[in-house]
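Hi R.,

Here's the chain you asked about this morning:
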Amino acid sequence: MKILLVPIIISALTMAGAASAGMQGQGARPDTTKREYKEEKPGGYRIDELDKDVDTTISKQEARVKRHLFEHFNKIDKNGDGKLDKAELSAFQG
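And the predicted structure, written out as tokens:
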């Protein structure tokens, strides 16, 4: 009887592990320690992290991932071209 129970127990544990692995992340809060959830201090934004189209500027759409930057976009965009360059980001003090 012991011989028959061992494969059944192993099978049950394997299925339980697979089921719990499939449930990971469902309904869980985002990990706020990860980089994409940290809100950086004003003036601490880097173009290379936000510039998705690699044109060396930040568009308003690209700025959306940083709430503070997006909210102050028009104030930071001194030349009014709709893009933030390195000088404009460096000058921004929040």
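Residues 42-94 form a domain with the Recoverin; domain 1 fold (CATH 1.10.238.10).

Let me know if you need anything else.
M.
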